[in-house]
Amino acid sequence: MTAGLSSEHGLDGLPENLHGFALLHRAMRRDAKKLLAVAPKLSSSKRARVASWWDQVRATIDWHHHTEDDILWPELRAKVPGFAEREVDMHADHAALDQAMDAVTAALRLDDNAALVEAATRFDAIIHDHLRAEETIVLPAFVAMGKRAYGGVERRIMLSAPPGVLAFLLPWMFDGAGSGRAAALMPLPVRLIGLTALNFRYERSYRWW
């Protein structure tokens, strides 16, 4: 399988058909850093808005990981020799990430920035470590699976998104990626919705930033 693929420092060098998956990982890293930056100075008046935004981020990450466990990993087990042996570690990583996100949710319910800083620091470290380790396994496996097979699985994954997750997901993953990137990856009808009405809702969720 192809080695050395990563989205950590951008999409250059990745096959174009993997850019959608990579943009999801990019969005997780970006928002972990945003949470970490705001945690020490979060005012009581903004806490509820940040908590609402976080609930949307958390729901999207949860959906992403469930689709990996339920759709993507089984397909890779069936089509890519050697994947099953490497998959075990990723399940443990998902459990650790769930615990880190639970801690952020709990900290946002308290008027205690010290607790939020601790939880945000742990989440940031775990999400970066998890995505780095996951990509060393799955990005080469996607290449080995083949572009056509991967495209079919990706469509199944997107169709599995609940409406609430999908409405947040589209502008979230393309935030900062540029309209050209969206144009390359999204069908025209979806692109028009994702970059207009959905963007308006998405930007409202970020007004605390």
Overall description:
This protein is an all-alpha fold and 209 residues long. It has helices at residues 19-38, 44-79, 83-108, 113-145, 147-159, 163-174, 179-185, 188-194, 197-205. α3 runs antiparallel to α4 (113-145). The protein is globular, with a radius of gyration of 17 Å.
Give the topology, please.
Blueprint: H1 19-38, H2 44-79, H3 83-108, H4 113-145, H5 147-159, H6 163-174, H7 179-185, H8 188-194, H9 197-205
Helix pairs in contact: 1-4, 2-3, 2-5, 2-6, 3-4, 6-9
Main attributes of the structure:
single chain, about 210 residues, mainly alpha, 9 helices, globular
Low-pLDDT runs of 5+ residues are none
- Overall mean pLDDT: 87
Q: Strand portion, in percent? A: under 5%
Tell me the span between the first and last alpha carbons.
41 Å
The largest sheet, given as strand count, sense and whether it forms a barrel, is:
none
N to C succession of SSEs? HHHHHHHHH
Task: Tell me briefly what this model is.
With about 210 residues, this protein is mostly helical.
